[in-house]
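Protein in question kept underneath.
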Amino acid sequence: MGYRGAWAALRNEFQPLNRKRVHRLWKELRLNVRPRTRKRRKGMPMPDAPTRPNEVWCLDFVHDSCLNGTQLKILAVVDEFTRECLALEAASSIKAPKVRQILSEVFKERGAPKYLRSDNGPEFVAKTVQDWIAAVGAKTAYIEPGSPWENGYVESFNGRLRDELLNGEIFYTLREAKIVIESWRRHYNAIRPHASLNYRPPAPEVFLPAFTAWPAAHRRP
């Protein structure tokens, strides 16, 4: 997240907060993390770039494990336009029927997107999943095999998930992993500042004063 993200997360709690002061403390505490170097490919625009929310969702898996030996398979579903993580489901195994079940729950809450972008994994290209996606009015947008950069939004999200949670957290059981991962998803959506969104969260929590939320409270006998 870097010192800018730390400044954005603390500026409401500590006002006024100078960004340069945060940068100086960041360096003194040696919190700088050397960025990972990746090969960048040029001249390959992102196909079907979204122009509004709920237009393109991207899907991918992240793998981890629990201390008791249980393998974790985590399905991430991200709205490419808003950057909101719509689902982050952890299980010991996620196959095509489970993918359909997870997406069905998100569809009930958000409606069906125009496109679902994913790789060509068997969980996504299964005929039952393709037929169901077509039946609800969405379309699949599979990336070329061996071309993860075509699904760059979810790849970036997976990197943040691993750096900010999985690499520093020990899960003892699958149940604990589910609770912690879901808690991180809520924090990611509602609190964590995003540089691409002018250091604001994708879906900030809104708190209304009691008298605003409950008009009846204004009336007195």
Q: What stands out?
A: Residues 94 and 217 are 48 Å apart (CA to CA). The mean pLDDT is 81. The longest strand covers residues 56-65.
